[in-house]
Design goal:
Elements lengths: L2 H10 L2 H7 L1 E4 L11 H6 L3 H4 L4 E3 L4 H14 L7 E4 L12 H6 L3 H17 L4 E2 L23 H16 L10 E7 L18 H17 L4 E4 L3 E2 L2 E2 L4 H11 L5 E3 L7 H4 L6 H11 L4 E2 L3 H11 L5 H17 L12 H7 L3 H14 L1 E5 L11 E4 L24 H9 L24 H9 L5 E4 L24 H17 L2 E7 L18 H13 L3 E6 L7 H6 L2 E4 L7 H9 L66 E3 L3 E2 L3 E2 L4 E10 L5 E11 L10 E10 L4 E9 L5 E2 L5 E2 L3 E8 L7 E6 L1
Parallel strand pairs: 1-2, 1-10, 2-3, 3-4, 4-5, 5-6, 6-9, 12-13, 12-14, 14-15, 15-16, 19-27
Antiparallel strand pairs: 7-8, 11-16, 17-20, 18-20, 20-23, 21-22, 21-26, 24-25, 26-27
Helix pairs in contact: 1-14, 2-13, 2-14, 7-8, 7-16, 8-9, 10-12, 12-13, 16-22, 17-18, 17-22, 19-20
């Protein structure tokens, strides 16, 4: 439809019809047996409105979507199609690693491919819009939603946000297999005070603009069709009603002309913030701020018409919002093809296809971060091995926001090892088999049974060892069949069995971690360590075997002090997705090598949170072992530095990085400097290293971070092979928000750091003239 036709359509719509386009409801209200109850009517959700709402939340499936769309368009006064929106965070039915894990790949182009695959599956199921990517900057591991971000660095987050937007949307939203992306949560949601979800955010305007806003802008610049408001207050004003944030910054400065949608019930929640007296005032403030769609409250439905007729909201403001919604529908091609890609046959063809599974495995392998390795990995196939712990036989490896993924699509670590390496692991002594996770004595499938037979004369044994959560937490109604509650006696028996197996083994793999529902939305935690029952298992296993590898499942950085002290190896695998178990087996046995780097610092303990590598210098910096006096910015009882810093990650080989060489010592603002290092594989195995470039502005009108990531290169080298890596530094890498409130560079001296993580001291200096 051409712009002229869209304008004519808008002009012909009644005010009630236009308001309907600004309301989003859940798909369940369109079910055959759905009725508009008293509470729904009180919210303004009348039968008349249901024939005019503009979008639907949470409904998918080609046949379901087509049926709802058909019936709706028959009744809609202008036959305007619905938009169907869904949280497709890290995959649809094929689930990729959680976004924090994807950040660990340091490979945005890989996430772009994952988003493309997710879009194809979603589109075939009738989805038009995904509420992703979440690009909130995260520095506090207590906040459960760190799992949805790609980490603590604005540069890395910006690259990933833009890549995911391109992956979801492609070059043409109307093209087959593309869906609209929604950048969220605008703005500063990741800065929640004390890491408590939905809490207030207290950021200076400088910190907001320099650290938190860049990644949102990167997604907008990449063409994101939608932006979502955040739940939090910023400067004392809820974002959903923040006219300065949404009009001045988002619309004017960032030049965003797409659809702005509230988060779930965020307009109504301005009442509970104490910012609005009632739903009428909340609707007025949200509309004034430019929020186009009210997600699942009755504030717009019940109040906007009256606000317009009473002259409190100009109808032009409504027209502006509705036109953006109609324009999005037009960009998706829905006026000509209201079902777009919804196709049952295509669903069966594309969902969980081999190509998507291969991509999921590649992404999982590249997301794993080897935190420690004292010769324990890769595992030796001819040594007696015990796999112990609650994640040896667990299919819930997808993360809490993988709402479409199904456990039955996911293999277990036990199955993956048996299938891929069991036949090659033969030695004297038979295998012993534990009862699996939480007392499950039978294998879940014929494939598992075959795996058991293949290992019958081998050296691998599997043991649960302990409940997933034990006495630390109960998640009623969510635990799958492999996570049944067990008695204290059963837990003690499993523990004894696991310890006995560890004592007999030559190498032990402990598969430990959070429950997948312990991270995600509303999953803030003041204690970010493994459940005590798992720590007990770890201690007792380590007491009888000193060759222990921990495979760690988590959606956030954890306090790993005790694990790090005692384990020989630690492999962080996040929530790896559909092909996670196969990827883990490949890495454990050396078929693939880990190459991930931490996108978020792992604190020494929770007392450091929030902790991040790019902190500001203080007037009394702490230099361990070199302080001249006691009065320094430090803790009395713990170190300042995290246990594992941003950018850190080992491989199965070793690398050396030569001193930094600059091709000149000075540069002008229209010039450039090339910084070079030579990277050499000094080990005995092939491997991939991510070489990282950090800059430090030594003296400026505003205090600068001690270092900032400005570039990285992934280099794959054979043993003994070396390669020169060059980084070009221009004025673009040197600009910052100066005391004048402008993005610009300032003359002076700069440090260039190049190495394997954010703590590298391999540096050189140059001067900007």
């Amino acid at each position: 439809m051409r712009e002229k036709e869209l304008r004519e359509l808008l002009a012909d719509m009644s005010l009630e019809e236009k308001i309907g386009q600004m309301v989003q409801v859940v798909g369940g209200l369109f079910a055959e047996d759905a009725t508009i109850t008293g509470p729904m009517q009180e919210m303004g959700f009348t039968q008349e409105l249901m024939g005019q709402v503009g979008s639907v939340l949470g409904t998918f499936g080609a046949d379901t979507v087509k049926e709802i769309q058909r019936k709706y368009m028959e009744k809609q006064p202008h036959h305007i199609p619905l938009l169907f929106m869904l949280d497709v965070i890290n995959g649809f039915r094929t689930v990729f690693p959680i976004p924090l894990g994807q950040g660990a790949t340091f490979e945005p182009e890989l996430s772009e491919k994952c988003a493309q695959a997710a879009a194809k599956e979603s589109a075939a199921s009738g989805v038009h819009v995904t509420f992703a990517p979440m690009t909130d900057l995260v520095r506090d591991a207590r906040w459960g939603r760190v799992m949805e971000s790609t980490g603590e660095d604005p540069y890395l987050n910006s690259l990933f946000c833009a890549a995911m937007v391109r992956g979801f949307q492609g070059d043409d939203l109307s093209a087959k297999g593309n869906i609209a992306a929604c950048v969220k949560h605008f703005a500063g949601y990741g800065g929640a005070t004390a890491g408590r979800d939905y809490n207030t955010v207290e950021l200076s305007d400088h910190t907001l603009r320099e650290f938190y806003l860049p990644s949102y802008k990167a997604g907008i610049d990449a063409g994101a069709a939608l932006v979502m408001t955040s739940f939090n207050t910023l400067g004392g004003i809820p974002s959903t009603g923040n006219k300065y944030l949404m009009r001045d910054v988002l619309r004017d400065e960032f030049e965003f002309d797409g659809v702005l949608i509230s988060d779930w019930a965020a307009i109504e929640e301005m009442i509970y913030h104490g910012y609005c007296a009632d739903g009428r005032e909340a609707a007025k403030r949200a509309a004034a701020a430019g929020v186009d769609i009210d997600m699942m409250t009755g504030c717009y439905a019940k109040n906007l018409c009256a606000l317009v007729r009473d002259g409190e909201i100009p109808e032009e403001a409504v027209d502006e919002a509705v036109y953006r919604i109609l324009e999005l529908k037009n960009r998706l091609g829905l006026f000509e093809h209201p079902y777009k890609d919804a196709d049952g046959e295509l669903e069966r063809e594309v969902i969980l296809c081999d190509a998507h599974r291969r991509l999921a495995r590649e992404a999982a392998v590249k997301s794993f971060v080897l935190l420690k390795n004292e010769g324990a990995l890769p595992l030796e196939k001819d040594r007696k091995t015990a796999f112990i712990g609650p994640y040896t036989d667990n299919r819930n490896l997808m993360g809490s926001w993988s709402i479409i993924g199904k456990p039955e699509d996911v293999g277990t670590l036990r199955e993956a090892v048996a299938e891929r390496f069991g036949a090659g692991v033969q030695a004297d002594g038979g295998s012993r088999y534990g009862r699996g996770a939480l007392g499950q004595e039978r294998f879940a499938s014929d494939a598992q049974a075959e795996g058991q037979d293949a290992l019958a004369d081998g050296t691998i044994s599997f043991h649960a060892g302990s409940p997933v959560l034990g006495n630390s937490m109960k998640v009623e109604g969510f635990l799958g069949s492999a996570e049944e509650p067990c008695s204290d006696a059963e837990a003690e028996a499993m523990l004894a069995e696991a310890v006995a197996a560890a004592k007999e083994a030559e190498q032990v793999v402990l598969a430990l971690g959070e429950h997948y529902l312990q991270s995600g939305e509303a999953k803030s935690s003041g204690i970010i360590s493994l459940p005590e029952i798992q720590l007990r298992l770890f201690r007792e296993v380590c007491a009888v075997n000193d060759n222990v590898t921990v495979v760690l499942f988590s959606g956030r950085p954890l306090d790993l002090r005790e694990i790090s002290q005692k384990a020989k190896a630690i492999l962080e695998v996040w929530w790896p997705g559909t092909e996670g178990a196969a990827a883990i087996a490949d890495v454990l046995y050396g078929a693939s090598s880990p190459s991930g780097k931490l996108p978020m610092s792992f604190p020494y303990c929770v007392g450091q949170a929030p902790v991040h590598y790019n902190e500001y210098s203080t007037g009394r910096p702490h230099h361990p072992g070199a302080d001249k006096d006691f009065f320094r910015s430090r803790y009395l009882d713990i170190p300042n530095k995290p246990l594992y810093p941003f950018g850190y990650g080992l491989t199965y080989t070793s690398f050396s990085v030569s001193p930094v060489k600059l091709d000149r010592g000075e540069m002008t603002r229209d010039g450039q400097i090339t910084a070079r290092v030579t990277v050499k594989n000094t080990g005995s195995r092939p491997g991939t290293e991510t070489i990282q470039l950090y800059l430090h502005d030594i003296a400026a009108s505003v205090v600068r971070p001690v270092r900032e990531l400005k570039g990285f290169r992934k280099v794959e080298l054979q043993p003994g092979e070396e390669r020169e890596i060059g980084f070009t530094i221009t004025d673009k890498e040197l600009v910052f928000l100066t005391e004048n409130g402008r993005w610009e560079s300032e003359a002076g001296e700069f440090e260039v750091f190049i190495g394997s993580d954010s703590m590298t001291e391999n540096a050189a200096r140059f001067r900007l003239l």
